[in-house]
Amino acid sequence: MLAKPNRLTRGSDYKAIVRRGARCAGTHTVTYVGGGGDAPARFGFIVSRQVGSAVTRNLVRRRLKAVCAEALEGVRPGADVVIRALPGSATADFSELRDDVVRCLKRRAA
């Protein structure tokens, strides 16, 4: 689970990161990285209805949160990361999601 300081909560933050952040596309996710500074790294997740039912979307969101909690130490301080789940993420297993996210975080947020 991500601690409160490591979560994006405001819609304006999401919008700014998606519009101005560096983009990295994977098979099941698209990762946007922006920000900088001394604050802790923050993560946000976008899982639309195209992914599936509410149960499926929450499962995907929980998996993405777990991946980010594992990878938190490898992310530079001050990085703001938004991960958008693509429709194929509903059928992907945990290891596939982890590979997608970790690869993009190493490229953009390390």
From TrEMBL:
GO biological processes: tRNA 5'-leader removal
Protein's UniProt keywords contain DNA-binding: no
Gene Ontology MF terms in the entry: 3'-tRNA processing endoribonuclease activity; ribonuclease P activity; tRNA binding
Protein EC: 3.1.26.5
PROSITE patterns: RIBONUCLEASE_P (PS00648)
GO cellular component, as recorded: ribonuclease P complex
Catalysed reactions, semicolon-separated: Endonucleolytic cleavage of RNA, removing 5'-extranucleotides from tRNA precursor
Annotated SUPFAM superfamilies: Ribosomal protein S5 domain 2-like
Protein name as catalogued: Ribonuclease P protein component
Protein species of origin: Microbacterium hatanonis
